[in-house]
């Protein structure tokens, strides 16, 4: 069994989708650097200095196509040169010290995709108000549907903190433009016969700035994509 300190991080790229995250992006880049060979920031045409700060902290900056976070993730894929990709948010809500826990089971070839679970690791953001209540209820319903459809027992399907083999990421042929890309990645991984694992990952409150998600605008898309991808016949591409 590999010790966490002995992991080879050179073969890891950390990808950070960031839209108007100037106050936090530099700190996130500095903290993820020791766990990867390259940091890619996908800038959502920020109105603040997200791009400039990212470059000055040593990240490669690419632009999305202004369609949302899912589009940002899809735009990053052609730039990844390493075997493992890690996705982490720019608002400081994910803890970079969890990255070794995400990539270790991949390096040991136990899983192809490892998702950070807030339901196992706890969240400082997912409870308290009505918005949080709706988010948690909705995401628990989606997770239950996935578990029922595929006879699995994952704890969550919406976190943006994950590690995945780059060749698997490419084979998922992702289509979503907004945050529905998280459940698309989870469902397609299971659907195509790849091995999905979870590790506990605590979610902290965003350190600055404002949420880019408007529940009232996106809930229909969540319902539609859930049933569309769940009803897709199993398509095993894992060899
Ligand atoms: N490039 C890019 N990044 C985005 C876009 N929308 C959101 N992001 C980033 O995606 C990450 C997650 O977005 P958040 O607004 O934090 O979503 P959330 O974590 O559900 O919301 P909070 O509860 O406020 O943290 C952050 O790093 C955002 O900056 C976009 O359109 N383009
Ligand atoms: Mg956030």
The description of the largest β-sheet is: 7 strands, mixed
CATH T-level fold name: Spore Coat Polysaccharide Biosynthesis Protein SpsA, Chain A
- Overall pLDDT, averaged? 94
What's the helix count? Answer: 9
Distance between the first and last residues' Cα: 25 Å
Instruction: Give, in spatial order, the strands making up the sheet with the most strands.
Output: 3-2-1-4-6-5-7
Low-pLDDT runs of 5+ residues are: none
User: What ligands are attached or bound here?
Assistant: guanosine-5'-triphosphate, magnesium ion
Give the overall shape.
globular
CATH hierarchy, class: Alpha Beta
Radius of gyration: 17 Å
Architecture, according to CATH? Alpha-Beta Complex
Helix-strand pattern, N to C? EHEHEHEHEHHEHHEH
The helix content, as a percent range, equals: 25-40%
Label this structure with key terms.
239 residues; alpha/beta; Spore Coat Polysaccharide Biosynthesis Protein SpsA, Chain A; 7-stranded mixed β-sheet; binds magnesium ion
């Amino acid at each position: 069994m590999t010790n966490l300190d002995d992991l080879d991080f050179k073969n890891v790229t950390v990808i950070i989708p960031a839209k108007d995250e100037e106050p936090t992006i530099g700190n996130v880049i500095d903290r993820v650097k020791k766990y990867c060979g390259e940091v890619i920031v996908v800038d959502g045409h920020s109105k603040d200095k997200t791009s400039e700060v990212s470059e000055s902290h040593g990240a490669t900056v690419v632009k999305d196509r202004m369609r949302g976070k899912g589009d940002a993730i899809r735009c990053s894929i052609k730039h990844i040169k390493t075997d493992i990709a890690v996705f982490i948010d720019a608002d400081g809500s994910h803890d970079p010290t969890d990255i070794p826990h995400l990539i270790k089971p991949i390096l040991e070839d136990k899983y192809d995709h490892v998702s950070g679970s807030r339901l196992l690791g706890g969240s400082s953001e997912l409870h308290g108000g009505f918005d949080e209540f709706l988010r948690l209820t909705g995401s628990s319903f989606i997770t239950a549907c996935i578990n029922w459809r595929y006879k699995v027992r994952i704890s969550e399907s919406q976190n943006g903190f994950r590690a995945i083999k780059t060749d698997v990421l490419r084979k998922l042929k992702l289509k979503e433009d907004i945050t529905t890309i998280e459940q698309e990645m989870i469902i397609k991984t299971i659907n195509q016969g790849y091995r999905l694992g979870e590790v506990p990952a605590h979610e902290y409150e965003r350190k600055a700035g404002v949420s880019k998600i408007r529940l009232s605008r996106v809930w229909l898309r969540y319902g539609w994509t859930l049933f569309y991808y769940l009803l897709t016949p199993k398509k095993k591409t894992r060899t």
